[in-house]
Amino acid sequence: MDTPTLLGFAGTVLAGYFAIMNPVANTSVFVGLTTEDDGATKRSVVRRSILLTFAIITAVSIAGGYIFTLFGLTMPELRITGSILLFIIASVSSRPKRSSISSDRAVST
Questions:
Q1: Which of 38, 75, 36 is nearest to 67 (CA)?
Q2: Which of 28, 41, 50, 80 could in theory staple to 37 by disulfide, Cβ–Cβ 3.0 to 4.6 A?
Q3: 3 state DSSP class of 34
Q4: Which segments of the chain have a pLDDT < 50?
């Protein structure tokens, strides 16, 4: 694999991880969970989180082919299944949620 192709692939992978992990939304969660912690504790949590995430991504990347072989999966099957799951999630998310308060009840004042 030549260098431009490898760099393009690496950029695509990093952009995918960035989109999946959504650091913009997770920042507020992190701030909310660590509001009472001092700076050293926050840095420690960040460091451990990054190392754990890197270890999990590396392990899955290395073992991914073996996992596919173990379960007899192919990439087209994974793409079809992922598309179906994404469609189900999108359709459930786009439906309006029913309120627990019935609109046909009279409001007592």
A1: 75
A2: 41
A3: coil
A4: none
| DSSP label at residue 100 | S
Nearest to 93 by CA among 82, 85, 103, 101: 85
| Whole-angstrom distance, CA of residue 28 vs CA of residue 97 | 25
- Cα four-point dihedral sign 28, 32, 60, 6: positive
User: What DSSP element (H or E) covers 9?
Assistant: helix 3-21
d(CA 69, CA 58) in angstroms, rounded, equals: 18
Tokens of 49: 């989180």
Asked if residues 93 and 86 have their Cβ atoms less than 8 Å apart, the reply is: no
Q: What is the pLDDT of residue 103?
A: 57
Report residue 41: phi and psi, to 5°: -65, -40
